[in-house]
Write a structure and sequence with these properties.
It is built from 3 helices and 5 strands, in the order ββαβαββα. By secondary structure, it is α+β, with helices and mostly antiparallel strands. It has a single domain, classed as Glutaredoxin (3-Layer(aba) Sandwich). It comes from Candidatus Lokiarchaeum ossiferum.
Length: 114
């Protein structure tokens, strides 16, 4: 399985939608790649939920190996990562621009979620 880098595939991936009914307007779209066993991933999910953000969640370790590898290859190529994809890996889409966080970094996240 390969993904085309010339088009945005993020909305098409198999996301779990995490919605907060209290949050009516949100300028940023959040794509959250996680592992079920990662303590920092869990901290990040709690951070987003505590701050009442809607986000798209994907547990990479629940995917089959072919799909997981294809998604990781797509992310590494699209965002030109010099290192491996860390957990959690978060994409903040704000006004058409993507900002990434390669790991748990709540201070950086706050700067993108205002």
């Amino acid at each position: 399985m390969e993904y085309d880098l010339t088009r945005d595939i993020l909305p098409e991936l198999p996301w779990e939608k995490k919605k907060n009914e209290q949050k009516t307007q949100q300028r940023v779209e959040i794509f959250y790649f996680s592992l079920t066993t990662c303590v920092y991933c869990k901290k990040g999910i709690s951070f987003l939920q505590d701050n009442k953000f809607n986000f798209n969640l994907m547990y990479l370790d629940k995917l089959d190996l072919v799909q997981k590898k294809a998604i990781k290859t797509y992310i590494q190529s699209k965002y030109k990562l010099n290192t491996r994809m860390a957990s959690p890996f978060v994409i903040f889409r704000l006004d058409g621009d993507d900002f990434i966080s390669n790991g748990y970094d709540p201070d950086y996240w706050k700067s993108k979620l205002r």
